[in-house]
Design a protein that fits this description.
Distance between the termini: 32 Å
Largest sheet: none
Number of strands: 0
Shape: globular
Strand content: under 5%
Helix content: over 70%
Number of domains: 2
Order of helices and strands: HHHHHHHHHHHHHHHHH
Radius of gyration: 23 Å
Structural class: mainly alpha
Length: 500
């Protein structure tokens, strides 16, 4: 079930992510570098208003999964409705605040051309409506995931994710401007929310409203108060660099930074989705209390996620320069490729903390993850600010890398054999070492293709295909165990058509 859920969860973001990457050149062409930078700035400002969210979805996923495993329907319903009420209120309050004070933030801290100022302020008001809708949308999509029904949630995420990217690109190219792009995004978000309500009714989750008992609300808020630290740090990590670069260097520099950053982040987001299905599984295992199963789950998930992250990010570093040139144009290569390499390395280091964080939270220790995540944000923001002042967008990317390295080492040393019941030595020996050594050897074999192959789209595709093939072979031969090899071979046999 874990593999099936991982693949469904991956598909929910993989298809939209690929479409999003494909539509970036159309957005830049239709909106211009400044317009694209303004959309990015508004998205970051809106993201910071998510500070109102106590990350209650983390608590609801854990306890919905737990109460479902215990077949406690009453507590399940009360947990669901407490979350629904909370995110409805947060959406209204946040959207109103964004509409009232967001314009002042943009005008005071960021500069845009006079011709785009009116459109920018109108776009921000439309984004405020989108904020209110998105709060409920993000909560509702997490509910079937808590029940490990990733198949249904992924279908909606894939469909609406593709639609919003394609329609946004079409509107931009058709001359709709930043106002038109933001409007269609909000409309599609409303349709997505309505579809999710229908899905929950179909699954029997959208029960008659009930008022939660005090112990339910207390349990959720207590858990989520610590998980909120992780969310706060995530917002700092995702949006602070863009706001800092936008205020110091302007929207055009922000666009040059965002494009390579978006490439690496979106691709890594695919593998993150594969690993995130561990969270509700661990929450359910916490009820059973089986340490051997938990240990094996942790080591297997860490081994494969580390390899996948290293393989994917290694491919980005290998062909990123040529890809950027063909994807968004040669003007992005000079500044964009060094940023791509730095961000890729930082994301790889961050990815080592993913499974330990999920295990840690699933076992009921969100305060540890939250405190380290908040420390990462607090350290990272001044480092990015200083780096931007000294060396522009490349300095910001280098600061990200340094902050990631410092906090990842401290977190991993602390949690193992404390809140994560596996030693750091065993994790290194049975997960990280085989994954990183196999991935490094595979990429080393594929590296000469970078200099042997000539320039051109065909050569780029050959490099990617050859490197991916070598990585798959190394993973199969050197990383997988006998059970996993048998599973892979059985899947391959089913995919090969039989001949009579």
């Amino acid at each position: 079930m874990l593999l099936r859920n991982s693949l469904w969860h991956l598909s929910g973001i993989a298809i939209p992510a690929l479409v999003a990457l494909a539509t970036v050149p159309f957005l830049i062409s239709g909106l211009g570098l400044e317009g694209f930078g303004i959309i990015t700035l508004i998205t970051s400002v809106v993201g910071y208003f998510g500070i109102l969210d106590l990350n209650l979805s983390a608590g609801t996923i854990k306890y919905l999964a737990q109460y479902h495993a215990q077949k406690d329907q009453a507590r399940f319903a009360e947990t669901f409705w407490f979350g629904a009420l909370f995110y409805g209120v947060i959406g209204v309050i946040g959207g109103a605040l964004l509409a009232l004070i967001g314009a002042g933030v943009l005008i005071h801290y960021f500069s845009s051309s006079v011709t785009l100022l009116t459109e920018t302020l109108l776009t921000l008001k439309i984004a405020a409506v989108g904020f209110a809708l998105t709060q409920w949308q993000n909560y509702l999509v997490s509910v079937p995931q808590a029940l490990q029904r990733y198949d249904r949630s992924a279908q909606g995420e894939a469909f609406f994710g593709v639609v919003v990217n394609v329609v946004s690109a079409y509107v931009a190219v058709a001359g709709g401007g930043i106002v038109g792009v933001m409007t269609v995004r909000v409309v599609i978000s409303a349709l997505n929310t309505a579809w999710l309500v229908g899905l929950l009714k179909h699954l029997g989750i959208f029960t008659a409203p009930v008022w939660p008992r005090r112990d339910i609300s207390r349990t959720l808020t207590h858990f989520s108060a610590y998980a909120y630290l992780s969310r706060l740090a995530s917002m700092l990590h995702q949006h602070a660099d863009k706001l800092i670069i936008g205020s110091i260097a302007g929207p055009i520099a922000l666009a040059l930074y965002t494009v390579p950053n978006q490439l690496a982040s979106r691709v890594l987001g695919l593998t993150y989705r594969l690993g995130s299905v561990v969270y509700p599984r661990v929450s359910a295992l916490a009820v059973d209390g089986n340490p051997d199963v938990l240990r094996q789950l942790y080591l297997d998930a860490t081994r494969w996620l580390t390899y996948l992250n290293f393989a994917v990010l290694g491919l980005i570093a290998l062909v990123g320069e040529d890809f950027l040139r063909r994807w968004v144009g040669p003007e992005f290569v000079k500044d964009g490729y060094p940023i791509l390499l730095l961000i890729t390395f930082a994301l790889l280091i961050d990815s080592l903390t993913q499974i330990p964080s999920l295990i840690n939270d699933g076992l009921g220790h969100p305060k540890v993850t939250g405190r380290f995540a908040l420390a990462r944000g607090i350290i990272g923001v001044p480092m990015v600010y200083t780096g931007t002042l000294i060396a522009g967008i490349q300095g910001a990317a280098l600061a990200h890398l340094l902050a990631s390295a410092i906090m990842a080492v401290l977190f991993l040393v602390y949690v193992h054999n404390r809140t994560v019941p596996i030693s750091l030595q065993d994790t290194f020996k049975y997960a990280w070492l085989p994954s990183l050594s196999s991935g490094f050897a595979a990429l080393l074999i594929a590296l000469p293709l970078r200099w042997v192959m000539s320039d051109g789209l065909v050569s780029l595709l050959i490099q990617v295909s050859a490197a991916a093939l070598v990585l798959c072979l190394f993973g199969f031969v050197f990383l997988s165990n006998n059970t996993e090899r048998i599973l892979v071979l059985s899947i391959v046999r089913r995919l090969i058509p039989r001949t009579n």
